[in-house]
């Protein structure tokens, strides 16, 4: 340690004078001892020094109260913080005066003064009076102790602070091993000259594990104690010693409940924090059911409520005091320390006109939400329309537009995405628009609505009552109702305000109005008033505070409502991998838990083994993963932006107060400057993100996925009784009930004779057979390694990533279970349970459960076992699947099936014939497969052990629906092939494999999509051919419980002749006709010109291009990535089926070619004189016509060696049948030339 000498500071005539005045100018870091903010050399500074009569002290104690003594000490707090920084930087010992003493209730000042003189002498103290206190400042600690002793003797009421000499110097040692004994640390520090009072190891606040961090208390009376922060090594360990983090909250006394001091140095009468009476809080007998009472402001809340008006006043004065030293910080979330330390629920409502429409207002609104840490924003008069897309990062937006669909009126609610909430049904009328959500505060469901009521409509009392009846039992609404009433602080009453006041009085609602006007008209003939209010019906235990916000630039100022309760945060999705995985530990843990000597001789043994295996994997994964630390998701604005926001806020308040044109110009300048800076920050961030995008680290695809896949929340669902399901649990149960009714066979179609026939066949005994071949561990390992990596797991949370890390012992156990399943022909119950999530269907009403598509999530090991079994049974069942079925078969695609139909239609057109077709729509084909009928067919195809295995596989299946983070009740499945399973498509193909056929019709099957074609020169005969086949199919469908949706099926005719084919019927219902038909993703028109298909593809390309435009046109994204985006996200849209429609006329191909040329020119920003041919050559992008030829040649080259004879027939170089070329048309076979 090095010693330093500095000029001591002494007290002379109640002023601080340094012997080394010359050092003042040399050391720029030294604190100016004046409390004035003016420069030392200014005349005002000299006048202030001459005028000062009070005792100026460099004390470091934060004295805060509600009187003038507190206001005076706010300046002292700021100066002392600078002084502390100076002492830390320069290591300069300085004489520190004792803390001041604040005495309350002094009636005889002279008598008290004489007692002080008699006790410590006449020239050892100074006094200063305020309206409520007498401030006493002593010169030495001994005199300070004597005064305290005297005040205790006379029972005076006072408060003070700890002596600096009694307060140890606290420091934090980092990077020192937690097992280091505290006594060794003390010895090491004392050897280098420090006197250590205490050493404490710091423990984690949750896990209570020791951290490499120690608190040390150093005696401050030693020499050069601040050199402790210069130490870099202790006990042969590199360490870092620093000051502890400062507490930012204003201290509150637990004795008198006042702010600015603590209980240890308080001699005031006690005040209860609960009831406000003069007794200790620990001895309070108030019932919890009675409302609390603040002992400071007499409000209906505890004294430690941070929304208390006293605390808010002190907090604002404290923040204003330090704003001259640094930018004003955003107001903190209130904390209810008696309940929890989570941030309070905050919402903001703005009636600003047209606020969220343009990007500049969007930046300003986002800055407001982030800077004020607002959880829910209620926006009035949004001017949105149905096509408006408004996005704020970290928030979800729900809007209600005006019913007429034009850009006026409307309301929207903006909610933090991290909160648990549920959207509520919209209230949408001409006179009121409201959008709401439901959250839970203190286990109380609370509905929150943003509302707007246009002023041009006359609202009646009944209309107000009808609106409030839809809000629920507990609610808060906020917005611009254009209602004025003197009861909530308005300047005048208006008729709507009188009606609203009458409604609130009759229904016992509470109106929360801000302290200042919210409407600031620009016209000097109008006066400011309150238009934006909150109306609530909430429990009395919720304490609220309403304040004004001047951040937004609008004729309406925002208001802030703060409630002392914390909303629930969304939990994380359950997963086995919580963070960084230690796979070696995972494997070791599984090896220790797995027991290969288990008995697997009965179905119960298999179920128990599956349960233990699942449990072991879960426990091993959770114990081997280190949870990721919670990251702070809040976005802090730069310092200069926060300063500008504070300046703008003050300028707005000044203009609202004065209405001077000069103040208005200043506000406009600050507003425009803030908008430019916010736009610049957004642009810079966007540029950095684009520059960092790459196809190698998946960042490029993550960005495009966010653009193309808009995440939609499930809105409220309408129940059968007309009410709404709002919560996730209610939605899940509605979906469960819908799916339960779906997973049932069509019993109304099945005939009793058919049911008896099937049941009789299933009751017959099975023949004896040899046992199946055992499964090898290598088969299991191969199936696991080839499983998709990014599939969602089932209920057991086991993913392919976890399964690939299983040790050999666990793989042996899994193989043992698989072989036992084969041996006993029993499928485990746990592997037959599925979690179902619902995905909305595009273009369907979102409030109906029928508008959602179920997606089943099954356990991974059940899929692994199915994949192994499927490989074994495919050779057995392949011959039973008809050649016309192309769905879910190896080397069969939709293009192959459509190619067959296109060749038939081409033959028809060349031969001047008529091709009439029926395209059938099967209703819920996979979900309503009759289990007994499927087993009837499997029994005649599969060996007995596989038949019994699939019988167990289909029986006793159950499901549960997941909506959000809630699961519905468990329900059984009585029909359908297991969705999401590996064998489900094969089982469906087997179930439909014996459909009747006729020699005069062409059949095209792809899973449940069926097409029937008949060709003839006579339209009546062509229709009769199809009709005869439909009659056979109708009987077969009834026998096996399959229902055809006649209204969605289509009758279509392909011909060049101007005739109409007679209608055809299914179940005595005529099939509807259409202008064109869509089959397997391709649009077929009457003359096969592909005009409709290319038109629809161009519309889809335009829509996708608009979504990706800012990426494709950005100068910060390199050309390689732009071309990659085009090839992978735009080109596949039009290349699907180009083997067939690529032979269309040039006018139709040009629709796609023009789009590609425009897109390439947009990507490269090529000037007008660069031709499209040059662009295609330089970028190595083939034209649409060349792509068509390349694709068809590649597809055609595989036809001749295909195992399906129907596909082999397509391998000819001309249309099958080789008709005479009559038309000047190009068919797909011509692309070979």
Automatic annotation (TrEMBL):
Domain Reverse transcriptase: 820-1084
Matches recorded under Pfam families: Exo_endo_phos_2, PRE_C2HC, RVT_1
UniProt xrefs under InterPro entries: DNA/RNA_pol_sf (IPR043502), Endo/exonu/phosph_ase_sf (IPR036691), Endo/exonuclease/phosphatase (IPR005135), Pre_C2HC_dom (IPR006579), RdDP_mobile_element (IPR052560), RT_dom (IPR000477)
Taxonomic superkingdom: Eukaryota
Classification via Gene3D superfamilies: Endonuclease/exonuclease/phosphatase
PANTHER family in the cross-refs: ENDO/EXONUCLEASE/PHOSPHATASE DOMAIN-CONTAINING PROTEIN (PTHR36688), ENDONUCLEASE_EXONUCLEASE_PHOSPHATASE DOMAIN-CONTAINING PROTEIN (PTHR36688:SF2)
A GO term for molecular function: endonuclease activity
Stretches the record annotates as Disordered: 17-44
Record's keyword annotation contains Nuclease: yes
Claim: Hydrolase is one of the keywords in the record: yes
SUPFAM superfamilies: DNA/RNA polymerases, DNase I-like
Name of the protein in question: Pre-C2HC domain,Endonuclease/exonuclease/phosphatase,Zinc finger
Keywords, ordered alphabetically: Endonuclease, Exonuclease, Hydrolase, Nuclease
Biased composition (Low complexity): 34-44
Lineage of source species: Eukaryota, Metazoa, Ecdysozoa, Arthropoda, Hexapoda
Gene Ontology terms describing biological process: DNA biosynthetic process
Protein species of origin: Cinara cedri
């Amino acid at each position: 340690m090095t010693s330093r000498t500095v000029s001591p500071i002494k007290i002379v005539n109640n002023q601080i004078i340094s012997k080394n005045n010359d050092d003042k100018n040399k050391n720029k870091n030294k604190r100016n001892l004046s409390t004035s903010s003016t420069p030392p050399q200014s005349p005002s500074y000299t006048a202030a020094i001459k005028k000062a009569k009070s005792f100026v002290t460099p004390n470091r104690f934060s004295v805060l109260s509600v009187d003038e003594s507190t206001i005076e000490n706010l300046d002292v707090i700021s100066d002392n913080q600078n002084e502390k920084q100076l002492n830390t930087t320069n290591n300069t010992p300085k004489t520190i005066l004792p803390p001041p003493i604040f005495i309350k209730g002094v009636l005889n000042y002279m008598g008290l003064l004489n007692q002080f003189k008699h006790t410590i002498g006449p020239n050892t103290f100074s006094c200063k009076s305020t309206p409520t206190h007498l401030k006493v400042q002593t010169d030495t600690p001994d005199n300070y102790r004597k005064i305290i002793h005297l005040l205790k003797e006379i029972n005076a009421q006072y408060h003070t602070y700890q002596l600096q000499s009694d307060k140890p110097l606290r420091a934090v040692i980092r990077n020192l091993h937690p097992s280091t004994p505290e006594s060794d640390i003390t010895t090491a520090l004392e050897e280098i000259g420090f006197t250590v009072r205490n050493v404490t190891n710091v423990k984690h606040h949750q896990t209570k594990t020791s951290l490499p961090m120690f608190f040390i208390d150093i005696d401050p009376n030693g020499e050069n104690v601040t050199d402790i922060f210069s130490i870099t090594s202790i006990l042969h360990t590199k360490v870092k010693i620093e000051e502890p983090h400062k507490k930012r909250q204003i201290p509150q006394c637990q004795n008198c409940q006042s702010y600015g001091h603590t209980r240890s140095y308080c001699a005031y009468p006690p005040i209860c924090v609960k009831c406000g009476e003069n007794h200790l809080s620990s001895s309070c007998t108030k019932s919890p059911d009675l409302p609390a009472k603040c002992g400071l402001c007499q409000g209906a809340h505890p004294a430690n409520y941070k929304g208390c008006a006293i605390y808010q006043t002190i907090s604002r004065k404290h923040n204003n005091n330090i704003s001259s030293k640094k930018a004003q910080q955003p107001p903190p979330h209130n904390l209810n320390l008696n309940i929890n330390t989570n941030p309070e629920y905050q919402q903001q409502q703005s009636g600003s006109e047209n606020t969220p429409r343009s990007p500049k207002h969007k930046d300003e609104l986002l800055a407001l939400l982030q800077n004020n840490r607002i959880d829910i924003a209620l926006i009035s008069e949004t001017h949105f329309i149905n096509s408006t897309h408004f996005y704020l990062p970290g928030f979800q937006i729900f809007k209600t537009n005006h019913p007429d669909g034009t850009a006026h009126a409307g309301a929207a609610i903006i909610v933090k995405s991290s909160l648990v909430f549920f959207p509520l049904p919209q209230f949408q009328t001409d006179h009121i628009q409201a959008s709401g959500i439901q959250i839970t505060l203190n286990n109380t469901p609370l509905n929150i609505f943003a509302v707007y009521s246009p002023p041009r409509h006359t609202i009646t009392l009944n209309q107000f009552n009808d609106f409030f009846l839809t809000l629920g039992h507990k609610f808060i609404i906020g917005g611009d109702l254009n209602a004025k009433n003197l009861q909530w602080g308005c300047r005048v009453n208006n008729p709507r305000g009188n009606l609203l006041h009458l409604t609130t009085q009759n229904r016992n609602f509470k109106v929360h109005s801000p302290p200042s006007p919210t409407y600031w008209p620009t016209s000097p003939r109008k006066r400011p008033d309150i238009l934006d209010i909150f109306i609530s019906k909430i429990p009395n235990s919720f304490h609220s505070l309403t304040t004004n916000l001047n951040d937004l630039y609008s004729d309406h100022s925002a208001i802030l409502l703060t409630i002392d309760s914390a909303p629930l945060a969304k939990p994380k999705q359950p997963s086995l991998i919580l963070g960084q995985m230690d796979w070696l530990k995972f494997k070791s843990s599984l090896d220790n838990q797995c027991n290969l000597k288990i008995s697997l001789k009965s179905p119960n043994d298999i179920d128990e083994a599956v349960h233990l295996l699942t449990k072991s994997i879960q426990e091993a994964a959770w114990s081997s993963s280190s949870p990721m630390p919670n990251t702070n998701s809040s976005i802090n604005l730069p310092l200069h932006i926060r300063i500008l926001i504070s300046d703008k806020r003050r300028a707005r308040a000044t203009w609202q107060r004065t209405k001077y044109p000069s103040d208005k110009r200043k506000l406009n300048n600050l507003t425009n400057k803030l908008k430019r800076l916010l736009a610049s920050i957004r642009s810079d961030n966007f540029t950095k993100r684009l520059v960092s995008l790459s196809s190698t680290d998946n960042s490029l695809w993550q960005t495009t996925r966010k653009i193309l896949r808009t995440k939609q929340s499930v809105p409220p669902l309408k129940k059968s009784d007309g009410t709404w399901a709002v919560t996730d649990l209610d939605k899940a149960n509605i979906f469960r009930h819908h799916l339960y009714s779906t997973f049932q066979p069509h019993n109304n179609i099945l005939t009793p004779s058919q049911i008896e026939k099937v049941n009789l066949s299933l009751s017959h005994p099975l023949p004896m057979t040899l046992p199946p071949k055992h499964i090898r561990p290598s088969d299991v390992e191969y199936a696991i390694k080839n499983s998709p990596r990014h599939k969602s797991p089932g209920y057991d949370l086991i993913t392919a990533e976890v399964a690939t890390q299983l040790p050999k012992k666990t793989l042996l156990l899994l193989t043992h279970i698989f072989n036992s399943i084969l041996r006993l022909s029993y499928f485990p119950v746990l592997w037959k349970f599925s979690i179902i999530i619902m995905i909305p269907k595009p273009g369907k009403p979102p409030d109906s459960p029928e508008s959602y598509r179920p997606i089943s999530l099954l356990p991974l090991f059940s899929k692994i076992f199915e994949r192994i079994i499927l490989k074994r049974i495919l050779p057995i069942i392949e011959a039973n699947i008809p050649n016309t079925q192309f769905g879910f078969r190896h080397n069969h695609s939709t293009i192959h099936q459509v190619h067959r139909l296109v060749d038939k239609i081409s033959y028809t057109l060349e031969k001047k014939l008529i091709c009439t077709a029926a395209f059938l729509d099967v209703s819920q084909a996979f979900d309503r497969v009759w289990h007994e009928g499927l087993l009837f067919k499997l029994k005649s195809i599969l060996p007995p052990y596989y038949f019994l295995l699939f019988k167990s596989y289909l029986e006793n299946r159950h499901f549960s629906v997941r909506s959000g983070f809630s699961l519905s009740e468990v329900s059984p499945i009585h029909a359908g092939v297991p969705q999401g399973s590996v064998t489900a498509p094969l089982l469906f193909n087997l179930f439909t494999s014996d459909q009747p056929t006729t020699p005069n019709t062409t059949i095209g099957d792809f899973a449940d999509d069926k097409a029937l074609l008949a060709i003839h020169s006579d339209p009546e005969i062509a229709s009769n051919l199809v009709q005869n086949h439909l009659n056979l199919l109708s009987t077969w469908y009834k026998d096996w419980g399959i229902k055809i949706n006649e209204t969605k099926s289509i009758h279509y005719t392909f011909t060049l002749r101007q005739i109409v084919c007679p209608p055809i019927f299914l179940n005595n219902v005529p099939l509807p006709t259409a202008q064109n038909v869509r089959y397997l993703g391709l649009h077929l028109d009457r003359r096969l010109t592909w005009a409709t298909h290319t038109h629809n593809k161009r519309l889809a390309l335009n829509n996708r291009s608009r979504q990706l435009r800012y990426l494709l046109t950005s100068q910060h994204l390199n050309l390689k990535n732009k071309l990659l985006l085009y090839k992978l996200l735009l080109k596949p849209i039009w290349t699907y089926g180009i083997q067939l429609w690529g032979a269309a006329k040039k006018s139709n191909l040009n629709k796609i070619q023009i789009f590609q040329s425009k897109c390439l020119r947009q990507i490269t920003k090529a000037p007008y004189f660069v031709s499209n041919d040059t662009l295609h050559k330089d970028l190595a992008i083939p034209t649409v016509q060349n792509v068509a030829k390349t694709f068809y040649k590649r597809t055609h080259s595989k036809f001749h060696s295909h195992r399906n004879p129907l596909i082999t027939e397509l391998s000819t170089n001309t249309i099958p049948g080789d008709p005479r070329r009559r038309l000047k048309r190009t068919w797909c076979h011509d692309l070979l030339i």
